[in-house]
Structures are given as C-alpha cells and as structure tokens.
Amino acid sequence: MSTKTSIAPATATTDAPDTGARTPEAAGLITDARRRIDDLDGRIIGLVQERMAVSAVIQRERLTSGGRRVNLSREMEILAHYRDQLGKPGTALAMTLLELSRGQI
C-alpha cells in the first residue's frame, strides 16, 4: 500500500490580487492600471448604453415618419469610421455597437 503525498499549489494572499508580477513594484503598477481599466470599462459601458438610447430615438422617429428602421448608408459610414480609426478590429467593434443599437438585420 502506497501513500501519496500531495503538495498544494501556491496561492496568492487574499489581500493582494494575482497580477502575475515578479516584484511588489510591478504588482502595484499592474493593480493601479487594472483599476484604471475597470474605470474606463465602466465609462465605455455607460457610453454604449447612451448610444443605444440615442439610436432608439432615431429609429422611433424614422419609423414614425414612414421611414425604415435602419439606414444602411449611415451604417456604412460608421463602419468606415471605426475601421479608419482602429483598423480591421474597429469594423468588428462597430458591428457589435450597431447590433446592440438596432439588433440584427
């Protein structure tokens, strides 16, 4: 009969997030940068929600006036703008924003 000894993996302390850094200085910088990213993400989400609300107003007014829900030429302008500013991934981001704002066509 053999006895297996298991060694528990090292775990991060509960008061410090796992940053993957090898020095306390780097860990501090990473933690601060992550807080900034979390703040930026919150602001981005708020702006996306605001964009969705503005788009809903536009769609409602367009439909009320007898128009179509979606203006494809305007969407092409938006796609080109994001692509020009952010490259190919910008197009995917713009498509996601358009989908969130008007739903899939």
Question: What does the model show?
Answer:
The protein has 3 helices and no strands. It is elongated. The chain starts with 23 loop residues before the first helix and ends with a helix.
Keywords, separated by commas or semicolons:
single chain, mainly alpha, elongated
In short:
The protein is built from three helices and no strands. It has helices spanning 24-64, 72-86, 88-102. It is elongated, with a radius of gyration of 23 Å.
N-to-C span? 66 Å
Alpha carbon gyration radius:
23 Å
Would you count the extended β strands for me? 0
Strand proportion: under 5%
Largest sheet descriptor: none
What structural class results from the helix and strand content?
mainly alpha
Number of helices, counting only DSSP H or I runs of 4 residues or more: 3
Mean pLDDT: 88
**Could you list the spans in which at least 5 consecutive residues all have pLDDT below 50?**
8-14
Order of helices and strands: HHH
- Helical content class: 55-70%
Overall morphology = elongated
